[in-house]
Design brief:
Helix content: 40-55%
Structural class: alpha+beta
Strand content: 15-25%
Number of helices: 6
Radius of gyration: 18 Å
Number of strands: 3
Number of domains: 1
Shape: flat
Length: 137
């Protein structure tokens, strides 16, 4: 049995935000039998990071670009944090579904096809991403 955690990146809200050109949503499905071990490991490493870098959550965009609390952290340290988590995720027996949407294409199609029932039922890119993940499940 698997659990499901879904999160998005690049949220636009009701209209196109040029600073968020892509809407990405990922569904992470940890195996229920190994979830508690993974959760405990993640929390432990998060505590270690949080002792040096005051954060409430891990945001890849902030780590990668050196923003917010990561602004004064050397690029090689930020790279090691990202690499650690990629390796950590790869070594878990979790499944992933990734949905990526070009926001300008989405909003242009929505504008051109105002009467299309699809855009009435799914008016925002994040809903389309969530719908995509749900149909893949």
């Amino acid at each position: 049995m698997y659990l499901c955690y879904v999160d998005e990146s690049g949220f636009n809200g009701k209209k196109l935000n040029e600073n968020q050109p892509v809407q990405t949503m990922v569904g992470i499905f940890p195996n229920l039998y190994s979830f508690h071990k993974s959760d405990a490991e993640f929390k432990e490493v998060f505590k270690i990071i949080n002792k040096r870098i005051p954060i409430n959550e891990l945001k890849a965009n902030e780590i990668y670009r050196g923003r917010q609390s990561w602004a004064n952290i050397e690029p090689d340290v930020r790279d090691k944090v990202i690499e650690y988590y990629f390796n950590w995720i790869r070594n878990r027996n979790h499944k992933f579904i990734i949905s990526t949407i070009d926001n300008s294409v989405f909003f242009n199609m929505k504008k051109e096809k105002k009467d299309n029932i699809f855009f009435k039922d799914c008016p925002f890119p994040w809903l389309l991403g969530a719908f995509h993940i749900s149909i893949v499940i």
